[in-house]
Amino acid sequence: MSRPAASARAHLLVRREHPVARIAGLIGLFVLWELLTRTGWVPPLFLPSPLAVLGSGIEMLRSGELITHVVTSLERIALGFGLGALAGIAVGLGVGVFSVLDAIGTPVIAATFPVPKIALLPLLILWLGIGEASKVAVITLGVFFPMAINTYTGVRHADPLLIRAAVSFGAGRWSLIRKVMLPSALPMVFAGLKLGAGTSLLLLVAAEMIAASSGIGFLVLNAQNLMETTKLMVGIVLLSLLGLASHWLLTRLERVAIPWKADA
Amino acid sequence: MTMRRVVLALIVLGLLAGGPAGAQAPLAKVKLGVLKLTSSAVLFLGVEKGYFKEFGVDPELVYFQAAQPIAVALASGDIPVGATGLTAGLYNIVVGGVRIWIVADKGREWPNHNLTALVVRKDLYDAGARSMRDLKGKKIGVTQIGSTFHYNVGRYLEKDGLAAGDVELVPLQALPALNDALTARRVDAVATAEPFVSRLEASGVGVTIVQTGDTFPWQIATVMYSDAFAKNRVLAVAFMKGYVKSSRHYHDAVLARQSGPAFDEVVAITAKHTGASPDLIRKGFPYQDRDGRLMPGDVARQIAWWHAQKLVKTPLAEKDIVDESFLREALRAQP
C-alpha cells in the first residue's frame, strides 16, 4: 500500500477560483427571487421582483432622478471622506511620530472614538444646521477615527530595524518619516480607508434621512414614506453598488501605492 | 391568526344569537392603531365609555408615531383597525396590491375648526407675506413627501392659482423638527398642525396665514380596516356600531357645545390618553360627521391629485379602497 505521490496531493494546497460558481451563485439568487415574486406568495408591495426593480431603475435613470441623487450623495461622500481621511492621516502621523502629541492625543482619541457617530448627528445639526455642513461633518468624523487610529498603529509598528538602519545611514527626522514610517504605515492606512469607506456610506444614509431633499438616503426614506417599494429597492441596490465600487477602487489604489504587497 | 379570527367570529355570532343576555360572553379583542393626539379623542371616548364593549368588541389601543406606520401595520396585518390621516403612501399600498379599507370619517378639515395650518416666519409676515403668492420661490417645511401636509400645501398653491413647483418643499420628517427649522430660519414657512401652530404663535416665531379648514374642507383622517378584518363581517359591523355611538357622543358633547361638564369629560379622557395639557386639548378637537360618514367623493379627489403629482402611479377607483357598507349597516341598527 503506497501513499499517492506528493504531486497527486498538491491540489489540496491550491485554493481554486471557481469563477463559474461565483457568477452562478449571484444569478441563482436573482432567479430564485424572481420566481418567488412570480408565484404571488409575496405581494409585490413587500418584495418587488428584480426585473421590476431594474425597470424602475432604468426609468429613474431616464428621468434624471437617479443621477441627481447619486451625484448629491457622491459629493457629500467625497467631501466628508476626503476631509476625514486627510485629517485622520495627519493626526495619526503626528501622534505616531512625536511623543508629546502621543501623550496629548491618545487619551483624547480613546475617549472620543467609542461614541457612535450617528449619535452625534443631532448635535451636529444643532451646531451646523440641517444643510450640507452637518451631513459632511458626520461623515468626516466617521472616517477620521479609523484613519487616525490605523495610521498611528502603522507608524508605531514600523520595523525598528529599518528605522535604526535609516538613522545610522544619516537620515533626518523628515526623511525618516517620508521614507520609512509612512511607507510601512501604508498597508494600515489602506485598511483604514476601506473601513472608513464603509462607515461613510452608513453615515451618509443616516444623515440624508434627516432633513434632506436629495441623495440616496433620501431616496430610500422617501420611497418608504410613499410605499414605493420598487424605488426603495433601487436605492438599496445603488448603495450596494456604491460599496462595491469604493472597495474596488481602493483595492486598485492600494496595488499602485504598495507594489510590494501585490499578493494581497 | 386565521384560527383566532374564526374563534372571534364564533364568539360574536354566539353573542348576537344570545341576544341581550350575551353581555356575559367573552369580548372579542381588536387591536386599534391610533396616534397619541387629540385627533384620536373619539376613539379614546369609545374605549373609556365602553361603547365598543356594548357590541362585543374590546379594542386594545396601540400607539403609533405617525400616519404612515399605521398604514403599513394595516397592510402587514399587525393591526386590524387603524385611525389616522390619509397619505399618498396609503394609496400606494392599495396600488401595490394589498387591500386596506377606508370605512368611516375620523376627522375633517372644516371651517372654524383649527387643525392644520400654514405658519409663515414672523419677519416675512411683517414684510407683507399674507398668501401663497407672497411665498413664491420660498422654502416650505413639511413632514414628508406624500403626507397630509404636502397635500395641504399643494391645495393652498392651487387655490392661489400657483403650481406645485412655485415653492420648494423641505421634508423634515417630524412635526417638532418643523418648529425647530422655522425658529432657526432654515425654512420660510411650515405646514403643520395643532398644538405646534399655537406654540409657534405663542413664541412669536411665526404667524398663521392659512387655516386649512377655512380655505378648503377635506377628509383628512379616517377609520381603516385591514382586508382580513373587513372579511370578518360580523365583527367589523360590531366595531362600527360602537364607533357610531362614540362619534355621536363626541359630536354632541364637543362639537355642538364648546363647554360644559360633558365637554370637560371628553377633555379629561383625552388628557388621560395623550398626556397633553387640557388647555391645548380644548383648542385641538377636529370636526367630524356625527354619524361618521365620509365626505362624498373626497377620497377620489385626493387620489386624482396625488396621481396628477405622479406620487400615486395608478389612479385607484374609490370602490377599491372605500367601503362604507359597515357604517351603513351599523347606522341601520341604530338610526
Short description:
The complex is a heterodimer of chains A (264) and B (335). By secondary structure, chain A is mainly alpha-helical.
- The CATH topology of the largest domain in chain A corresponds to MetI-like fold
CATH class of the largest domain in chain A: Mainly Alpha
Strand elements of chain A, count: 0
Strand-residue proportion of chain B: 15-25%
Tally of discrete structural domains of chain A: 2
CATH architecture classification of the largest domain in chain B: 3-Layer(aba) Sandwich
Structure description:
The complex is a heterodimer of chains A (264) and B (335). Chain A has 2 domains: 6-38, no CATH class; 50-261, MetI-like fold (Orthogonal Bundle), CATH 1.10.3720.10. Chain A is built from 11 helices and no strands. Chain A has helices at 6-9, 19-38, 50-63, 65-97, 99-112, 117-128, 132-156, 160-168, 173-208, 216-225, 229-257. Chain B has 2 domains: 2-110 and 218-333, D-Maltodextrin-Binding Protein, domain 2 (3-Layer(aba) Sandwich); 116-215, Periplasmic binding protein-like II (D-Maltodextrin-Binding Protein, domain 2). By secondary structure, chain B is α/β, with parallel strands linked by helices. In chain B, strand 1 (28-35), helix 2 and strand 2 form a beta-alpha-beta unit. The interface between A and B is medium-sized, with 20 and 30 residues.
List the helices and strands and how they pair.
The complex is a heterodimer of chains A (264) and B (335).
Chain A: H1 6-9, H2 19-38, H3 50-63, H4 65-97, H5 99-112, H6 117-128, H7 132-156, H8 160-168, H9 173-208, H10 216-225, H11 229-257
Chain B: H1 2-17, E1 28-35, H2 41-48, E2 57-64, H3 67-76, E3 81-85, H4 88-95, E4 100-109, E5 116-121, H5 122-126, E6 139-142, H6 148-159, E7 168-171, H7 175-183, E8 189-193, H8 196-202, E9 206-211, H9 212-215, E10 218-226, H10 227-231, H11 233-255, H12 261-274, H13 278-283, H14 298-308, H15 325-333
Parallel strand pairs in B: 1-2, 1-3, 6-7, 6-8
Antiparallel strand pairs in B: 3-10, 4-10, 5-8, 5-9
Helix pairs in contact in B: 2-11, 2-12, 11-15
